[in-house]
Amino acid sequence: MTLMQSEEKAPAKLAKVPQHVAIIMDGNGRWAKQRGLPRTEGHRHGVENLRRVLRACVQEGVKVLTIYAFSTENWARPRYEVDALMRLLEVFLGRELDELDKEGVQIRHIGETSGVPPRLQKKINDATTRTRHNDSLILNVAFNYGGRKEIVEAVKHIIREGIPADNVTEELISRYMYTGDLPDPDLIIRTSGELRVSNFLIWQGSYSEYYVTPTLWPDFDQNEFHKALETYVLRKRRFGMTDEQLEAEQK
Ligand code: FPP
User: Fold this and answer.
1) Residue 28 Cα, ligand 1 centroid: separation in angstroms?
2) Which tens digit of pLDDT belongs to each residue from 224-246?
3) 3-state secondary structure the chain
């Protein structure tokens, strides 16, 4: 079965599909522990699950998927686990690239490249260059990513370009983020129940809807994903407005 083929039947159409979904794929370690397996096995199953969720995104009509694959804080993990995560991304990009490209997935990387092993950097570059004109789904891989670091880098960039203070607006700062040309995430999903933002898209997520589920990432399948989107449909995004203003705006 290829990446985008599914054995499951297509989910019911939703009234409103979030354009941009971001996911904190948490719980791989616990999933492995429950089965007496090493943590790295949990990550391996996490990658398998990513394939399922990618398929679900294409089926549901989501346009951008941002995944938190490795945070700047993850360097503190045991060396073998850091190495395994690097290796998994490398294998994922090697094994899935043809299929992702064929399906029109555009791969992007957000985060810092410094510190990432050169071989993996090259794989990331090859994947992003090869798929840059694809437009069925943007897969934004947050790898060696930290939200505060992203803001620091944006500020440095703005100063280096000599932009006058009076010209600095929220829109301008957004354009200097790694996600510059993308819409902010409509929905941010966190698996495995933790109620934390963990330095993920802290600028872009200001008005995002959050969905937290106790399900561990390797078990967060197509049905679970659909449930998250259904919950999103029922939410009212008011962006600080009153209900009356919102209704007037939507007419
Ligand atoms: C959190 O689970 C997950 C991560 C730190 C990494 C997420 C990575 C993957 C799903 C695989 C890598 C993806 C690619 C594309 C290479 P945890 O280990 O913190 O789980 P725990 O909280 O149960 O210990």
Assistant:
1) 5
2) 999 999 999 999 777 888 878 87
3) CCCCCCCCCCCCCCCCCCCEEEEECCCHHHHHHHCCCCHHHHHHHHHHHHHHHHHHHHHHCCCEEEEEEEEHHHHHCCHHHHHHHHHHHHHHHHHHHHHHHHCCEEEEEECCCCCCCHHHHHHHHHHHHHCCCCCCEEEEEEEEECHHHHHHHHHHHHHHCCCCHHHCCHHHHHHCCCCCCCCCCCEEEEECCCCCCCCCCCCCCCCCEEEEECCCHHHCCHHHHHHHHHHHHHCCCCCCCCHHHHHHHHC
